[in-house]
Amino acid sequence: MELDGHIYVWSPERLTATYAAVLGLLTHQVFRRHETYCISAHLTLLLAPPLLIALTVSDSWQCIPKTRLLVSYAAYLSTLVLSLVSYRLSPLHPLARYPGPLGCRVSKLWMASLSRAGYQHVYYRDLHKRYGSVVRIGPNELSIREPSAVMALVGPSGLPKGPHVTGRLLTDKDLPMIGIEDLSTHMTRRRAWNRGFSSAAIAEYEELVGRRAMQLVQRLEEHQGKQVDIERWFDYFSYDAMCDMTFGGGSELLRDGDENNVWSVLSAGMTAMTFFGHVPWLGVYFGYLPAATRPIKSLLAACKGLVEQRMQQGSRTRDLFHYLNHEDQMEQSPPPMRQLVDDGILAIVGGADTVSGALTSVIFCLLTHPETYDKLQVEVDKYYPPGEDVSSTRWHRDMKYLEAVINETLRVYSPGLGGSQRKVPADGPGVTVGSLYIPPGTALWVHAFSLHRDPSNFFPFPDDFWPERWLLAPHSPDLLSPEAADAKPTNFVHNEEAYMPFSHGPMNCVGKNFALMEMRIVICALVQRFRFRLREDYDRADYDRNFKDYLIASRPNLPVIIELRE
Ligand code: HEM
């Protein structure tokens, strides 16, 4: 280089640093355009270019000076990171118009580490309070609290699923249905599930749920006058019921207790995997470590045992497996074993954890709202007086107060706090919903907890349990006495567009109607037989403190005293 008549020759280190920086910028463009979970592609892009530069600049390929190698890697990696961060913070980024905290805009690792404490639902809600209905919660991710956008994003022609399940399960292969991002593959897989949860199929599951509910009642009767952790009993009930419904049996936690620690494996997995749900690529890397996948492998092995047993023994009833294995469609060949195992786990985990949590929250809400408890008791006594068979669902349709109690519990303490993750495909057009434009490649959460607790959707008492709001709702005025209807607050708001405990559309919770049936049967059975009390010194704030978001909400400890009703 010539300057003021002098010739300057760049030192090899300087030359190395410049080339490395330029390659760092180029590599950022490659990462930006091509998403991949391929670890060898990532490693090659991260490690090979600086080495090549150091080699090229050196005189001898046999001996590269250590400092040059160091300079090359330092310049390459720091330019790559700097370019990545400045782009994410710059007005050129497609999500630049959406506000959000700096940490979220820079890296998903920010939310990943925050999520470990279990309060990301509260964090997102606070962000919405601060920034509005659309918040940037990751470099390429939004949280949405806009009721009018719910149907467009997750409804009948909504977006495909997002990638968080890939991270949670530490693999991008053999995903259960809930994690399948490709729309048509998801739809194909969902057909068997839809048959397994048709009204006719659910009617056949009624009897087995009723039997398990009665077994739960009998086990609790043994603890009359004593204190129990009711959430543990719901864990046992829901796991046994899901195994019955999915495989025609295979679990006896209500009878034997949790000797194999099924529930601690499930809960530990949920907590640990929340981190990786935010950074799927890191989850996939982590999945290569044998120790990391041990809990998932033990679940797979247990479920494989159930599948094999079910295949050998068949089933006296039409269980969910009957449909998942295409036994109802003889012309279709059965799916591969791995798919049956993956979907079997999905049924048991997705069905047991959620229902157990929802039942625990119902009991907590009733015990902290004695007037509601009394009203529900009156309704249960009317339809299911002592001696009336609670496993029959014939009166459920008429039990409007029970429906209001369940709806309200699922509003305030929704087991799926985060709602649904979806993603605008990177290789297609962006999506416009009203004034909201979502660019290609953006992942998003339609955030149930924020929608459910927003005073502009549910008022008064948006944070409190108040089942009456469902009776005051415009579509059910005839359910209330004239005096009660007169008591309706003038500023009453009830926006069911914002209510989504089971999500919506063709990828919503396929087990919704089964879950509601299960909950109704158990609540009627318990209210008919028992009067529960909270332990005297129980601090009810503990419930909110321990109601944590690990995709499915954790179930706080709920110590109750059991009394038999005369
Ligand atoms: C109160 C209980 C339950 C709640 C609140 C709940 C909630 C949810 C939510 C929010 C989703 C995500 C849907 C989406 O991505 O849009 C989901 C998916 C799913 N749920 Fe549930 N669920 C419950 C019970 C059950 C039960 C009993 C089953 C029975 C097997 C079940 C099976 C599933 C399955 C298979 C999916 C994946 C659906 C798909 O990807 O197409 N759930 N659930």
TrEMBL record:
Heme binds at C509. Signal peptide: none annotated. Its cofactor is heme. Keywords: Heme, Iron, Metal-binding, Monooxygenase, Oxidoreductase. The keyword Cell cycle does not apply. It holds the Pfam family p450. InterPro entries: Cyt_P450, Cyt_P450_E_grp-I, Cyt_P450_sf, Cytochrome_P450_monoxygenase. One of its GO terms (molecular function) is oxidoreductase activity, acting on paired donors, with incorporation or reduction of molecular oxygen. It comes from the Eukaryota. Pathway: Secondary metabolite biosynthesis. Belongs to the cytochrome P450 family. This is High nitrogen upregulated cytochrome P450 monooxygenase 2.
